[in-house]
Write a structure and sequence with these properties.
Layout: E1 3-6, H1 12-28, H2 32-48, E2 55-60, E3 66-73, E4 89-96, H3 105-119, E5 124-129, H4 133-141, E6 145-152, E7 159-166
Length: 170
């Protein structure tokens, strides 16, 4: 049975990069460009991470192997205005390994992340793309709404990119 932990652990970056690269190549035809973009973004985030707000939420199995991740980035540039940070949380790098799916871990990771946003009185946003229906259902269950949708190739493959926002909870 997997459990949730908070904070970076050795191997977390490798898990996140590898899992994203494998999953999105296998299911969506994404290329090395996407995996490199995940790696570069994750390295950039880790170098500027603010411990008082930013969070690594991880799921680990009984052997202490990482099987899931969700990161909250409070200082990333705003998707709507890339010239500045919005101060909102950017939900990033949310993924579960194939063997961890279907156990409720995604729900638990999301609940912990949203509780952190609420404790800091911050809104949250994320980008994804059309076709990830289970993820969209989870996002909407946690208060996210689709704000914008457009064809884009920002991940190296043309998809129907979506921006979701979750307003500040009072």
């Amino acid at each position: 049975m997997a459990r949730l932990v908070e904070g970076w652990r050795p191997g977390a970056l490798g898990f996140i990069i590898g899992e994203h690269g494998q999953y999105y190549a296998r299911h969506w035809g994404f290329s090395a460009y996407f995996e490199a973009k995940v790696a570069a973004g994750l390295a950039e985030f880790t170098g500027r991470m603010e411990p008082s707000t930013d969070r690594f939420f991880l799921a680990v199995d009984d052997a202490e192997q990482i099987v899931g991740s969700l990161i909250l980035d409070f200082s990333d540039l705003d998707y709507s205005d890339p010239a500045q940070s919005s101060g909102e949380a950017h939900l990033r790098w949310f993924i579960l390994s194939d063997r961890a799916r279907g156990q409720g871990l995604g729900e638990k990771l999301m609940a912990n992340a949203m509780a952190h946003c609420d404790a800091l009185s911050r809104a949250c946003w994320l980008t994804t793309f059309a076709g990830l229906d289970a993820a969209r259902t989870l996002y909407e269950r946690h208060g996210f709404s689709l704000e914008r949708e457009e064809e884009a190739a920002s991940w190296g493959t043309t998809v129907r990119e979506q921006l979701f926002r979750r307003p500040l909870r009072l």
